[in-house]
Design a protein that fits this description.
The protein is built from 12 helices and 21 strands. The chain is an alpha/beta fold and about 475 residues long. Strands 1, 2, 3, 4, 5, 16, 19, 20 and 21 form a 9-stranded mixed β-sheet that branches. An 8-stranded parallel β-sheet has the order 6-9-10-11-12-13-14-15. Strands 7-8 form a two-stranded antiparallel ribbon. Helix 2 links the parallel strand 9 and strand 10. It starts with a strand and ends in a 21-residue tail after the last strand. Bound molecules: N-(aminocarbonyl)-beta-alanine and zinc ion (2 copies). The site of N-(aminocarbonyl)-beta-alanine has 8 residues, from loops.
Length: about 475
Amino acid sequence: MSELLIRGGTVVTADWMEAADVLVRDGRIAEVGHGLETAGETLDAGGHWVMPGGIDTHTHLAHPIGRLGVTTADDFYSGTVAGAFGGVTTILDFGLQDQGGTLSGARDGRLEVIRPDAVIDYGFHLIVTDVNAAVLGEMPGLIRSGFPSFKVYMTYGDKKISDDDLILLLEVTAGNGGLIYAHCENDCAVTHLIERHLAAGKTGPAYHAASRPPAVEAEATNRAIMLAEVAGAAICIAHVTSSGAARHVAEARRRGAPVVSETCPQYLVLDDSVYDPAGGCEVAKFVCSPPMRARHHVRSLWKALEEGSIQQVSSDHAPFRFEGQKTGGCGDFTKIPNGLPGIETRLPILFTHGVASGRLSPERFVELTSSGPARIFGLDRKGSLRPGADADLIVVDPEREVDITASMLHSNVDYSPYEGMKLRGFPTWTVSRGEVIVADGELRAERGRGRLAERSPIEASELP
Ligand code: URP
Ligand code: ZN
Ligand code: ZN
């Protein structure tokens, strides 16, 4: 029997916050109470907050971008180490179906890639790119066996699926406890606008954003929600960035539709000023899809988080090195690999700009970064400090402030979009299944110690 006692901290869950001790036994939460004792290891959490570990349900580690012949710069070791330093104890990444391939083949191949490297627990959404009868037939079994969510792209070249195919997928998830997780942008409009910009000689990184305006996102978001309603299915909208998309989600929820959504830190603290053409190739550091938006959209997203119409904040960690990866598109923005690094800074950004600034309660912070994601994606043993839950938790000194530089972060990239920011909310200790894996800036985790997280089918009625 192994025990760990986290003594004298302030415990914060999605529902309550009070001074308490947390006793962990054999990797699970045993008790939360007062005056607890152990013969095992004790962490003195005086002055700290003790919270469920972060769950990041949107990461792209070792993720190939076939069209550009590049792969994201973090593998499952560097990416999960970065996560652990940023307070993340579970990730859900992606497993890509090849054209002509099966979903179970994608699952098996992805498990082989992740298993030797991950230092925290993991799972993944299967990205469906080729919809056919065999794939639709595989889905119920995958859902029952712990792979209940499926990512779809409504744009993005060879990964895009049609509306016809989206309805078919939604019909299968509706009846079987699955969930479609949708990247929503109108492909016709994006393709058209890219061609217009290139033809006008507007080829630099700054024009990426102009080719994907907010209306493109709002239209596809509404279409995905409506198709889900037609099929009687639940849906999760990935990375909401604009007021229009957020409004469609909020309206659907008001009429009782099982629609949930996420946003990401980059859309909450950056804006479209990063796309100033005067920035030259440096702008490529901020190329992601959807792009950052004007300030009034940023304000709408904060309002949606406060009011509850966005239910989770994930990172969409898609790290590419500036030198040699992003710079490949300095003269043609369509050649810049899309995405930002952010797995390590997600919790600190939301803590600093949400909790410390008074916009979000500490409980809401836990809901958005841990308990909500667990409920949305069927991670029954994660995201809470209830007795019996996996003892995944973080111990954070709420006053400690860190100056962000790329070199102090652990991702395998040569820049940070947040360089120069001062952030609070980094953990002093990160605990995964009762093991201290980060202590005072030191990694204690062995490569490959992470496990596949158990997941259940997703009941629409249980969604936050
Ligand atoms: O620009 C982004 N977000 N790249 C990652 C791929 C995705 O999910 O959109
Ligand atoms: Zn996406
Ligand atoms: Zn993504």
